[in-house]
Amino acid sequence: MSQSYGKKSLIIFLISLFLFFLVYPASFNLSADFLNSKLKLEKAGFSIPHFFNIPFRLGLDLLGGTHLVYKADVSNLVAGQSSADAMEGVRDVIERRVNIFGVAEPLVQVEGEDRLVVELAGIKDISEAIRLIGETPFLQFKEERPEAETNAILEAQKKGDKLDQDPYFIDTSLTGKYLNGARVVFGGGASQLSGAEVSLELNEEGGKIFKELTEKNLNKRLAIYLDGVPISAPTVQSVIPDGKAVISGNFNISEAKELVTRLNAGALPVPVSLISQQSVGASLGRESLVKSLKAGIIGLILVAVFMVLFYRLPGLVSVAALLVYAIFVLTFYKLIPVTLTLAGIAGFILSLGMAVDANVLIFARTREELRQGKSLNSSFSEGFRRAWLSIRDSHVTTLIGAIILYLFTTSIVKGFALTLGIGVAMSLFSAIFVTKSFLALLIGPWLEGKKWLL
Q1: pTM exceeds 0.85
Q2: Distance from C-alpha of 272 to C-alpha of 25, rounded to nearest angstrom
Q3: What is the rounded average pLDDT of the residues 343-363?
């Protein structure tokens, strides 16, 4: 039995050591640098590499960023469309745009009937993000006018008439709403840097319209307008039946990428306007993070001191199990990854209390068995068995609460619910597997005469 638990404890220790370096790679890297320097390994053509670093994902209140509130104009909805449907459409489109922009962990949520809240953590170019979110690219395909019409409109415009008409191209029914996707391609320019083009793929309905347009305008120009400005006006060489087109507007790579980003983000179903903007500075976020970590460390130390003073040897074992628990939980936060906010850190600290509570139940039951004169092995086995039902019930009810909070609340509370849920689930593993393995390894005849340690 002791050998079995000894193997388990060794495996737990080795896994925990590896995960500790994953959570805090600086500890490994500093040791590696010291050994490389001390042993002069680089001169021998070998050196200890650094441990790979996966950063924690921090939320707006810890990393800094900006908080935006948009108001949507839902006064002119089409028949059959509700404001809730329109706002959900706005949320989906803006979330796609923000994700394309590369924000660490965006929050995009609807508030009320016409408000949308956007939180961009760690964003550096706020004005660029606002521009990207707010813009609604309008893509149009236009066919060439007959020469007689063009000349007539130009003559009229010389006299001050028909100034609102395009003398060269006529609107068609083919617009950006039929667009499935866009991507950057490279044409036959002198170099790839100057030959960047934008390839468009239309949906089935748009493909049919495009086929009809190319049939109708063979050997004529078909212009592509973006936001009312002509981008490209290629001549139709053949009928295009597959709904694929190319915009060749002498783009450089960055211009082509920006256009693709805007086109893929889609058009907003209703107009929106920015009504509020608040920034959280990186220094304020860093201060919040430092205070949160300090609170967690102080809480962990106080709990450890209490457990050692009150439960002695089992308390010391529970502290070791608690450290393993914290390493495992933080690893999950990194790998999922979980966006850590102040509320999320609060959930983690609360789950630490749940982990300690499970150990307290086990040790209290074990003490009762010892007071009845039972042996150490029997007392610990019975203590774990009798405590399990209470531990299971308390953890399951907390998990249910965390799941409900995660499913039916806003993102800030969701962060709390997620960290709490992960912590509570890991607490079950820690109490039943880690604590039991460590204690079983220590229990033996040598303790029978030293019950003061318990």
Answers
A1: no
A2: 44
A3: 85
Q: In angstroms, rounded to a whole number, what is the distance separating the alpha carbons of residues 157 and 163? A: 6
The per-residue pLDDT of the chain, averaged, comes to 81
First to last CA, the chain: 21
Q: Is the pLDDT of residue 440 over 60?
A: yes
Domains in the chain, start-ordered, CATH in brackets? Answer: 65-136+269-280 (3.30.70.3400), 139-265 (3.30.1360.200), 281-453 (1.20.1640.10)
User: What are the structure tokens assigned to 87, written together?
Assistant: 């706002």
- Helix H segments across 159-252? 204-216
pLDDT tens-digit map of 117-159? 888 877 766 776 777 676 655 678 899 999 899 999 999 988 8
Most confident of 14-23, 344-353, 371-380: 14-23
Cα–Cα distance between 145 and 151 in angstroms, integer? 10
The C-alpha atoms of residue 115 and residue 97 are separated, in whole angstroms, by 17
Res 404: pLDDT: 93
Q: What is the pLDDT of residues 188-244, one digit of tens each?
A: 543 344 568 888 888 888 899 999 999 999 888 888 887 677 877 888 888 888 888
Angle between helices 282-335 and 411-429 (to 10 degrees): 40
CA atoms within 13 A on the CB side of 76: 5
CA distance 247 to 226: 10
223 vs 217: CA distance, rounded Å: 11
Give the pLDDT of residue 190.
Answer: 39
CA distance linking residue 95 with residue 119, whole number of Å: 11
Q: Are 224 and 247 in contact (CB under 8 A)?
A: yes
69 backbone dihedrals φ, ψ, rounded to 5°: -125, 125
Q: Is the pLDDT of residue 68 over 90?
A: no
Neighbours of 252 (CB within 10 A): 12
* Residue with more model confidence, 58 or 411: 58
Say how far apart CA 254 and CA 263 lie, in whole Å.
Answer: 14
Rg (CA), the chain: 32
For residues 118, 124, 125, 130, the Cα torsion angle rounded to the nearest 10 degrees is 0
- Side by side, which strands form the sheet with 65-72? 107-111, 115-121, 65-72, 272-280
The encoded tokens of residue 419 equal 């960290």
78 to each of 75, 81, 104, 255, 270, how far by Cα in Å? 10, 6, 35, 34, 10
Q: How confident is the model at residue 123, as a pLDDT?
A: 73
* 340: DSSP letter: E
